[in-house]
UniProtKB/TrEMBL annotation:
Name of the protein in question: Molecular chaperone DnaJ
InterPro entries for the chain: DnaJ_C, DnaJ_domain, DnaJ_domain_CS, HSP40/DnaJ_pept-bd, J_dom_sf
Protein's UniProt keywords contain Transport: no
GO BP field: protein refolding
One GO CC term, this protein: cytoplasm
GO molecular function, one term: unfolded protein binding
SUPFAM superfamilies: Chaperone J-domain, HSP40/DnaJ peptide-binding domain
Keyword Chaperone on entry: yes
Residue ranges occupied by any J domain in the UniProt entry: 4-69
Species per Swiss-Prot/TrEMBL record: Candidatus Viadribacter manganicus
Keywords from the named record: Chaperone
Pfam families: DnaJ, DnaJ_C
Region (Disordered): 60-79
Length: 303
């Protein structure tokens, strides 16, 4: 139940406007949340005295209250909330705290409390808009090479996001001034775009290097060859040395991810693939082939 505003401010019903102003000023100095951080009881009392002052400092509302035409809550509009929220949440035109004029009762002194209100009023006018958060999924190759991609917004608008080469999963890009508009004379907020990178079907990234497994034929492994090898920027020719085995790793310098002062490398892991279906000629050759030196590829696997 809303308390009687006269009781809340501790003044008589015959109090003058000046008496009401002084009573409110005295209580507000004592109960202001900025002077009582974390004190929920003081915050609740501050709301009560603010609502009471709002009603009694308005001659028309006070007259209607005294005549019983409105109740202690003001009746014509919902009870106000915390003073910092008065300028938002539907208070509407005429709200005494919507601009600096609402603090005029405190602006006639030069004490610390008056300065606090003047400073807060100025800060409220200059408050920047809120930052807005988005998430954007891009392809693996776009993350490596960089791209400009359009982000569709929930309100139907869009933003063109410039993705730098080498961006990583989870990195956030800040688009200055592309967030929510300010409430007053401040600057708009920023758009914060978190990047999600989709996996690639054969490339894998480790730090600034790219790893790929490259299938080669048995003859390419035995005799050596020049084979076409994919990289994030296009295919290149790779020299496979004679006698290469599955698991042999070859390095392509500068074919990795862009980094400060250069690029990472691409590490190519060879994988020998036998013909499919099986090749009868190869089977016949191997069955008659007798190497002069016995080679046991499992000799190092003795427990």
């Amino acid at each position: 139940m809303v308390k009687d505003p006269y009781e809340t401010l501790g003044v008589a019903r015959t109090a003058t406007s000046d008496d009401i102003r002084k009573a409110y000023r005295r209580l507000a100095k004592k109960l202001h949340p900025d002077l009582n951080p974390g004190d929920k009881q003081a915050e609740a009392r501050f709301k009560e005295v603010t609502a009471a002052n709002d009603l009694l400092s308005d001659p028309d509302k006070r007259k209607k209250f005294d005549a019983g035409e409105i109740d202690a809550s003001g009746a014509e509009r919902p009870r106000q909330q915390y003073y910092k929220d008065f300028a938002r949440g539907g208070a509407g035109a005429g709200n005494p705290y919507e601009n600096s004029s609402g603090f005029s009762d405190f602006a006639d002194g030069d004490d610390l409390f008056a300065e606090l209100f003047r400073r807060q009023a100025g800060q409220a006018r200059r408050t920047r808009g809120a930052d807005l958060h988005y998430r954007l999924a891009i392809s693996f190759l776009d993350a490596i090479n960089g791209v400009t991609q359009r982000l569709s917004l929930p309100d139907g608008g869009s933003l063109d996001v410039s993705i730098p080469a080498g961006i990583q999963e989870g990195q956030t890009l800040r688009l200055r001034g592309k967030g929510a508009p300010p409430r007053g004379d401040g600057e708009p907020g920023d758009a914060l775009v978190e990047i999600s990178v989709n996996p690639h079907r054969f490339f894998v990234r480790h730090d600034d290097d790219i790893h790929v497994e490259l299938p080669i034929t048995l003859s390419e492994a035995v005799l050596g060859a020049r084979v076409k090898t994919p990289t994030p920027t296009g295919a290149v020719m790779l020299t496979v040395p004679k006698g290469s085995n599955t698991g042999t790793i070859l390095r392509l310098k500068g074919k990795g991810v862009a980094r400060r002062g250069g690029y990472g490398d691409e590490l190519v892991k060879l994988k020998v693939i036998l013909p499919s279906p099986p090749n009868a000629e190869l089977e016949a050759f191997v069955s008659t082939w007798a190497p002069q030196i016995s080679d046991d590829p499992r000799k190092d696997m003795t427990p």
